[in-house]
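Lab notebook: predicted structure, single chain.

Context: the supervisor wants predicted structures on file for every construct in the current expression panel, including those that have not yet been purified. This is the next one on the list. No modifications to the sequence; it matches the entry in the shared construct table.
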Amino acid sequence: MFRNLSTIGLPLSGRPSELIELALSFGFDAMDIDLVDFQQQAEAFGVQHARRLMVSARLNCGVFRLPITLDSDKATFDAELAVLPKRLEFAQATEATRAVATLAAASEEHSFKDFFEMHRTRLDVVAGLLDSHGISLGLAITPEAEARAKTHQFISTFEGLLGLLAVSHPRVGAVVDAWAFHVTGEPLELIAKVPQGRIVEVRLSDAPRDVPAAELVHSQRLMPGETGAINVAAVLTQAQTAGFDGPVTPWADRSTLAGKGRERIVKLAGDRMEAAWREAGLPILPRWFTPVAKDAYGRPLNDDAFSAMAGME
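Prediction complete. Output recorded below exactly as produced.
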C-alpha cells in the first residue's frame, strides 16, 4: 500500500508544482490526476509536457475520477461514453491503472431493480473499455442518510456494493471507505469478501464522537486520526490481509478544514497517515525527497529539485 494525496479528498487548490512539493514534503507517494485537465494539457502541449512534473517528482498516479456519470440520462451517458476511449488513451499515457466513481444512493426515477440493471449494463460497457487500457474501476458508496432522501433507495452499504460486484465485469471493484463502514455500522470483515484483486482504493477519515454514526452527515467527515472514533489502522490491516497494495487516501469535508492553510492541511494529513501506518505495523520507507527549506517569506531556499520542477511550469 502507498499513501496518496487527492485534491478532492482533501479539497486543495494551487499550482501543480506547489501541490507536488507538499505531497513530497509530507510523505505521500502518489497523487490523483484530473484526467480531463491532463487531456487538455496534453492536446495543447504534448503528453511529455503534461506529465513532466509528476515524472520529475517520482510520484505515482493514485486514481482518477471516471469521466462518466453512471446514473445520468441516456443522452448524457452516450455522449460521455463516446469520448471515453480517447480519454483513456491519455490515462494510459500517465500510467494510471485505477479509476473511481461514486454510486448514487437513491433515485427519483428508477426502481431498485431497474437502477441495478442499468448500472450493471453500463458498467459492463465501461469496464470493457477500461480493460483494453489496463485500468480497473473502483466504486464508492454514499452512506449518509441525507443521500437517500429520494423515492427509490439504491446501494448505500458495502454489502449492497458486494452484490453489484458479484454480477459485474472483473475490472469493476470496490473503494474501501473507513467513513462508510463507520456510518453504516458494517463489520470490517466484509472487506475480505471483495473478490481477489478488486479493491481499487482505500479512504481514511474520522468522525465526531458525540454524534451517533447513523446520524452523521458528510459535512462532519473529519481528517483521519482527529478523534479516534474510526479505527483506521484496523481498516488498513483488513485491506492488507485482503491483498490490497494500492493507494490509501485521506478524506475530509471542506468545512472541517476551514481556517487551515494548504500546507498545514497536507502536513497534518501526512502526519496522520504515518501514524496510521505505524499503528497498523506497515513499513515506513525512506524518502528520496527532503522537505524544502524556506525563508521568512515562504520562498524555497536552494532546492534544486523543486526549482527544476517549478521551472517546467
